[in-house]
Amino acid sequence: LGRHKDDQRQTGFDYNGVHFGQSNLHVFAGLCAVDNPTNVETMMKALHAHGQRCTRMGAYKPRTNPYSFQGHGQSCLHYVFELAGKYDIKVIAMEITHESHIEEINFALEETGNPTGVMLQVGTRNTQNFELLKAIGRQSRFPVLLKRGFGITLNESLNAAEYLATEGNSNVIFCLRGMKTSGGNPHRNMVDFAHVPVVKRLTRMPVCIDPSHSVGNRESDPSGLLDVVNATAQGVIAGANMVLVDFHPHPEEALVDGPQALLLEELPKFLEDVQLCHETY
Ligand code: PEP
User: Fold this and answer.
1) Could you tell me the CATH superfamily of domain 22-280?
2) Where does the record place the DAHP synthetase I/KDSA domain (predicted)?
3) Gap from CA of 122 to ligand 1 centroid (Å)
4) CA distances (Å), 26 to each of 44, 107, 202, 270, 272, in order?
5) Exposure winner among 111, 115, 224, 274, fewest CB in 10 A?
6) Which residues contact 97 (CB under 8 A, 6 or more apart)?
7) Mutation test of ligand 1: which of 72, 122, 124, 208 has the most ligand atoms closer than 8 Å to its C-beta?
8) Residue 93 burial (10 A CB sphere; 0-12, 13-18, 19+)
């Protein structure tokens, strides 16, 4: 996936009629964690109404605390895929934490006859889970959104992408999601969107930003530090090709990361602002 000097090869890839490249822009808005069919449908309906073709929906959640909600896993896949089919939305960024999840997703897709498509996500905690990367690389049905590891060098994270490619899957999007710092202040993670142009120069991968997990709070604090929306603008102006962003119809009831989820009524303005930033770039 590395870009060599004078490399003229196409960046990115096509998947089920949609191009994911280094010059266009997609928003992957959706639920960090699937909670119930009503919220999934509300989200997909709103995205469809605003011309969106992709969403994020987390079924398998890798949680730091074993007592936290771990995601509905396989049990929610059927209704997620049925609703995705109904609203013609691709489920981008379905994070998996174990290779057996690939089979579960395949099975649910077959059962529901969903024609829209799924993209797998490797989360930041698994960027160096080499056996998982190899297993995901061996299947070529689903493209992959790979998160940067939060405590390793950029080069080490780019090598993780090569693990996918050397096993046969080079349909990979690289996602910046912030780096760990001591204390997590002022943001949940240190926003690393200045690396957008760096990754685009070094590789042929489209680059996604995840302002939600980088900043960790939809509100700006009183000193006016970056909030999710401002961080998004920063990343898109830097040339990001995708924005992975948490929304929720009722963030106060979200089972995972409610404080960073944008409100559904903010969606139209958010999409408009992101488009303006993309045009500025
Ligand atoms: C997520 O996208 O839901 C997630 C857990 O992200 P990360 O791996 O970046 O923490």
Assistant:
1) Aldolase class I (3.20.20.70)
2) 17-274
3) 8
4) 15, 27, 21, 12, 12
5) 224
6) 60, 62, 123, 126, 132
7) 124
8) buried
By the 8 A CB rule, do 113 and 78 touch?
no
The 10s digit of each residue's pLDDT in 197-226 is 999 999 999 999 999 999 998 887 666 667
Per-residue pLDDT of 128-145, as tens digits, reads: 999 999 999 999 899 999
How many residues are there in the chain? 281
**Rounded CA gap, 112 and 115, in Å?**
9
| Closest ligand 1 atom to 213 CA | 9
Residue matched to tokens 């009831």: 253
Residue 85 exposed, middle or buried by CB count within 10 Å (0-12, 13-18, 19+): middle
Looking up tokens 């160096």 gives 128
Burial 118-140 (b: 16+ CB within 10 A, else e): bbbbbbbbbbbbeebbebbbebe
- Ligand 1 pocket, residue 177 CB under 6 Å: yes
ipTM associated with this complex: 0.98
Beta bridge partners of 173: 145
Tokens describing residue 159: 């090598």
Q: Rounded to 5, what percent of the chain is helix, strand, coil?
A: 40, 20, 40
